[in-house]
Prior knowledge:
- By secondary structure, the protein is an alpha+beta fold.
- It contains 3 helices and 17 strands.
- It is elongated.
- The protein starts with 18 loop residues before the first helix and ends in a 16-residue tail after the last strand.
Amino acid sequence: MTLKLDDDCFVLDKDRLPHHEALAILEARVRTVASIEEVPLADATGHFLAEAILSPRPIPAHDNAAVDGYAFAHSSYDKDAGVRLKIAGQASAGHPLPSVPSLDHAVRIFTGAVMPQGFDTVAMQEDVVFEGEGGERWAVIPPGLNQGANRRLAGEDSKAGAVLVEAGTRLRPQDVASAAATGLDRLRCYAPLNVAIASTGDEVLRPASRRPDGEVPGDRSGSFSAGSVSLEPEIGSGLRKEIVPGACLRGSARFPLVESGCRPSGHGDGRGLRAV
C-alpha cells in the first residue's frame, strides 16, 4: 500500500475538519459557565450583559421642547401673519409650569422642558420679538411655523418595553448611557472568566532572557483574558504539578486552562500538559 503524502502541512485535505465546521461544533456544544453578577453602571463598560435592558417607560417620558424659545398652541396661531401672545410663565428642564395656562398665551420654555398641556409648537427664541409694556410681557411670533415645530414627542427615542440593549452585548459607553436613561443604577452581567494560557516547552524563555540559537521568546508565567491569576510554572516534568494547583487556588472551580505546545504526536511534544 502506498501512503499518499501532503505536499504542504497547511493544505486542507478532505479528511481534515474545516475551520468553519470546527467553530460550528464548538458553538453548538459549548455552554456559558460564567455566573451572573450585578455591576454598578460606573463599572459596567466592557462587561457582557446577561439580561436585556428594557425601557420601563417612554423615552422621553413627556412631550418636550427641542430648543430654547416660546411654546404656544398652534390653534391660536396664524401661520400666514404670525401672532402676538402674552407670556404666561416659564418652564425649564425638570421644572414644569405648576399650572396650565390658557391656550391664547405663550410660555417661555427651555430645551428639554415639558410642554404644557395643549401647547404643541415652539418658536426659537432667535426668531421671536420680545415686548414689554405696563408690566406685561408679550412674544411676537413670526409666520410660517408648522404645527409641532421644535417639539419632541414622548417616546420618540424608544417606546415603553422596547429593548434598548440586547443580552450578550459587550457593553460600550453608549450602552451604559442608555441604561442610565431608564433609571437603572446596576446591570446584571456575566462574571468575567479567568482563563490562563500556558506556553510550555524547555525552549521557551522569558521575553527579556538572553537566547541561544533555537530558543523561543515567550512567557511561561501565563497569558490571561479577563482575569488576574498569577502562575509561575516550571518547564518539563514539573509543569503540571505547578500549574494545576495554582489554577485551583488562585482561580475558581471552573478555571479554563489552555495549554499551547502539547499535541502528542512527536517526541518533543511530551513536555506539555495532559488531561487537566
